[in-house]
């Protein structure tokens, strides 16, 4: 009976994440890859579902531009390499694996580098999974960020976060470093009825996100 309860709990967790993420589906062409360097700060972005652009046209690209303008140090960006596909049950887990593998490699190559983690829509679920948010415990293929790298995360920036809709936030050590933006009417993070709010509303939050990050450098 105990094993059955654990199994049912695991199914509930996966179903909860799936239900939260499935509303975040945006149909976009695939983005391109780009090489990285040892900038003082690297912005690691998990884009929304099939979102276009290098880091994501709705959030990642304008966020990166705002951070480069606002932060008093050199900034580089990395696009998390994952399917960003709601029909792929391994999508979020694959995203967490790539995010963590990249950060481990990058941290070793660039010992002084700090990181900003950003996620939009399904990408926010990827960031939650990498950080170890409880609801993601049973995500297939989930990979967690090693604790020693957590101290090098300057800020976590989440937009249209499906975990917010179901009442979950990042683990305690990251709370003071996390900004979470949810547009009024966004069905993904607020349970609203305006799908366009999920797609176009976050452009107005880039300045606030850049200031939030600068205050934590």
Question: What are the segments in which pLDDT stays under 50 over at least 5 consecutive residues?
Answer: 1-36
- Give the spatial strand order of the biggest sheet: 2-1-3-4-5
Shape: globular
Beta strands, count? 5
How large, in whole angstroms, is the Cα Rg? 16 Å
Mean of the pLDDT scores?
A: 86
What class do helices, strands and sheet pairing give? alpha/beta
End-to-end CA span: 50 Å
Helix content: 25-40%
Q: What amount of the residues lies in strands? A: 5-15%
Q: Output the helix-strand order.
A: HEHEHEHHEHEHH
- Count of helical stretches: 8
Q: What's the main sheet like?
A: 5 strands, parallel
Q: What's the short version?
A:
39% of the residues lie in helices and 13% in strands. The protein has helices spanning 2-22, 60-70, 91-109, 122-131, 147-150, 162-165, 195-200, 206-214; strands at residues 41-46, 75-79, 114-120, 153-159, 178-181.
């Amino acid at each position: 009976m105990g094993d059955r309860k654990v199994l049912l709990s695991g199914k509930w967790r996966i179903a909860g994440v799936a239900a939260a993420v499935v509303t975040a589906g945006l149909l976009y062409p695939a983005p391109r890859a780009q090489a990285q360097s040892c900038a003082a700060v690297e912005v690691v972005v998990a884009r929304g579902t099939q979102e276009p652009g290098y880091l994501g046209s709705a959030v990642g690209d304008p966020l990166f531009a705002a951070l480069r303008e606002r932060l008093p140090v050199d900034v580089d960006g990395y696009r998390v390499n994952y399917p960003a596909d709601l029909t792929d049950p391994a999508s979020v887990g694959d995203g967490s694996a790539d995010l963590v593998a990249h950060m481990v490699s990058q941290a070793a190559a660039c010992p002084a580098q700090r990181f900003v983690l950003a996620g939009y829509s399904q990408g926010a679920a990827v960031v939650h999974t990498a950080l170890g948010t409880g609801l993601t415990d049973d995500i297939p293929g989930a990979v967690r960020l090693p604790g020693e790298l957590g101290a090098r995360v300057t800020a976590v920036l989440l937009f249209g976060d499906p975990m917010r809709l179901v009442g979950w936030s990042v683990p305690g050590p990251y709370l003071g470093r996390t900004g979470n933006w949810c547009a009024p009417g966004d069905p993904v993070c607020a349970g609203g009825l305006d799908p366009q709010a999920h797609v176009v509303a976050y452009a107005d939050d880039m300045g606030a996100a850049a200031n939030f990050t600068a205050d934590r450098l």
